[in-house]
Amino acid sequence: MEITRKGTPYQLEGIQPAVGEKAPNFSLSNLNGDQVSLADFTNEVIVISVIPDIDTRVCAQQTRAFNEKVSKIEGVQLLTISNNTEDQQRNWCAGEGLEMEMLHDTSLTFAQAYGLYMPGLKKLARSVFVIDRKGTIVYQEIVPEMVDEPDYEAVIEAAKSAR
């Protein structure tokens, strides 16, 4: 799959999971140093918000928006994932005054499992997945232009419907 960044094309490595497929499991560290796995959220609806770089305007906006919107939906867990370092993520959260489940994928295990790594930029593609209580992907958006924001309302509706 190919996406663009300000019109320049970049190829994603691997195959992206599609709606209707079982979500690939992964295990990443959070800001407390705990390993968090998709399997930890069995019987919960999950929104996975993937951002290329927490220290950019659009990624910060996406993270703030989903943190605010998803926190209002009972029974839905938000996971935000980037390949920023733990310190970069921690500093951003501290600067924003937010406590959230932020996972760092510096080893690119999640990126490879979901086919979201862009070797040309050494970043993950901006994307969102909604996973139902059975572990099935019910919504997937890989934003075709990296500097654009995802469709927040479509994600929220998918999360509400999956409860």
Structure, explained:
The protein is α+β, with helices and mostly antiparallel strands and 163 residues long. It has helices at 57-70, 86-96, 109-113, 152-162; strands at 2-5, 8-11, 27-30, 35-37, 45-50, 76-82, 102-104, 117-118, 123-124, 127-131, 137-142. Strand 8 (117-118) and strand 9 form a beta hairpin. It is globular, with a radius of gyration of 14 Å. The termini are far apart. The mean pLDDT is 97.
Provide a compact summary of the structure.
The chain has about 160 residues and is an alpha+beta fold. The chain has helices at about 55-70, 85-95, 110-115, 150-160, and strands at about 1-5, 10, 25-30, 35, 45-50, 75-80, 100-105, 115-120, 125, 125-130, 135-140.
